[in-house]
Model the fold of this input.
Amino acid sequence: MNSINWKLIFQLSLFGLAMSLATISLVPENLEFIFWIVIFIICAYIVAKQAPSKYFLHGFLISIFNGIWITIGHVFFAATYLANHPNVVKMNGSMPMIMRQHQRSSMIIMGLPFGIIFGLILGLFCFIASKIVKKTVSQ
Done:
């Protein structure tokens, strides 16, 4: 039996696709973290109910896929995204010159570390949820 539910991981990663598009211009930069907390709680609950095992790994992989979706969306719509995210522009100002000159490239480079960091957080959420939530009985 496969201990990783790839379909579940992909489906839950679609939250990342939705947030990628929403954060371009709809979700204010200062409220984005609230949306992510809600998404992480929903994902953790669903993983705890439906994943066969390896709850932490499921959460980690969901966030890696989220990071890919987000990076693609933000790179593709970089001008609009940066216009609506002054703190990202400010952060880019403290980067080495090569990264400041190539903002899309810096988004790609920074996407993986952010995916890993948030993967560790979502993985922890999923692990904790697996200890709290009753498992759905599969047939």
Q: What stands out?
A: The chain has a mean pLDDT of 87. Residues 6-132 form one domain.
